[in-house]
Amino acid sequence: LENPLSCCLTGGSDVVQNPMLWEVEGVDATMNCTHTKGPLFFQMYWYRQLPGETMKQIVYTSTASADHDFGNFSKDKFSATKPDAASGTLTVKKLQQGDKGWYFCAVSEHSDRCANYEAYFGPGTKLTVLEPGRAVTKPTVRVLRPSPKECGKFKGRGKSKTIVCVASGFYPDHVGVQWTVDGLNISDGVATDDAARQEGKNYHITSRLRVSAKEFTKDRKFTCTVSFFNGKHTEYVSDFIHGEPGRPHSKLSLKTARFSYGYLIGKSGVFGVLVALLVWKLQVRCTGSPSPPR
């Protein structure tokens, strides 16, 4: 189905959708959409965006007609309602793993020409299809110290340090990552995976924070916090490290220092003997045969 709104799409905070929906494989999932644009906005469009794919329109609905236009999508798989201008629903039937993704609704006024109106999008609903019998599991979070061999530069400000946060072992994949430095949220220098990746039956995600070496000091605290929606509420799991503590005196360095000190003393002693012998030889030449130095 060709998108009739492709030339006039925009976002709108007055179009509301539930951000997340969880259902078990095999059941139906119904998503709601409401708006406060007014009674003239009685047309509603539903779109789907699956992982790795572009957004596709599923259905066009209107209060003016009970016969909704599903285009190339099957009514055996989808159904929709439009009870009034301000609300509508989309139902995905008999859920399969291939149905998980983002679902968006958009509303518009009626017009015969696209140039005369705009369509307002909701923020989308992320649909998760749970496998039967799978337990919801929160992530394990670990922050890894920078590699000592790192030699990159941070925005032209000298050497850089890259801190890595790894969240693993969670199911399903409803997570977000936030970095803080000394308790303050930070986004500059942050690079997080676009989406959680499946690893066996669970998921993992990584995020990297790059800072200048001068900022990576022992008095600073670098924290990675992962938010995880467990179906009822959001849980937060964190880990942190402090910056470079400096180089402590190891046993090896102390032994090296002792050896160097002893070596210098030894060398100075040998040098003293050589000087004494030289003086004695000079005395022999000048006065005869005095006793050798003691």
Can you walk through the features of this model?
With 294 residues, the protein is mostly beta strands. The protein has three domains: 9-130, Immunoglobulin-like, CATH 2.60.40; 140-242, Immunoglobulin-like (Sandwich), CATH 2.60.40; 251-294, no CATH class. The protein is 13% helix and 44% strand. It is built from one helix and 21 strands. The strands form four sheets. Strands 1, 3, 5, 6, 7, 10, 11 and 12 form an eight-stranded mixed beta sheet that branches. Strands 13, 14, 17, 18 and 19 form a five-stranded antiparallel beta sheet that branches. It is elongated and about 70 Å long. Mean pLDDT is 82; it is low at 1-9, 247-265, 270-276 and 278-294.
CATH class division of the largest domain: Mainly Beta
Apparent shape: elongated
Characterize the largest beta sheet: strand count, sense, and whether it forms a barrel. Answer: 8 strands, mixed
Radius of gyration, CA atoms, in whole angstroms: 35 Å
Tell me the CATH topology of the largest domain.
Immunoglobulin-like
Beta-strand share of residues: 35-45%
Structural class assignment: mainly beta
Q: Write the element-wise H/E pattern from the N-terminal end onward.
A: EEEEEEEEEEEEEEEEEEEEEH
Number of helices: 1
Mean model confidence by pLDDT = 82
The CATH superfamily of the largest domain is Immunoglobulins
Helix content: 10-25%
The count of domains is 3
Cα-to-Cα separation, first versus last residue: 109 Å
Extract low-pLDDT stretches: 1-9, 247-265, 270-276, 278-294
Topology:
Layout: E1 9-11, E2 15-17, E3 20-24, E4 29-35, E5 43-49, E6 56-62, E7 65-69, E8 78-84, E9 87-92, E10 101-108, E11 119-121, E12 125-130, E13 140-144, E14 160-170, E15 175-181, E16 184-186, E17 190-192, E18 197-199, E19 202-212, E20 221-229, E21 234-242, H1 251-287
Parallel strand pairs: 1-11, 3-12
Antiparallel strand pairs: 2-4, 4-9, 5-6, 5-10, 6-7, 8-9, 10-11, 10-12, 13-14, 14-19, 15-16, 15-20, 17-19, 18-19, 20-21
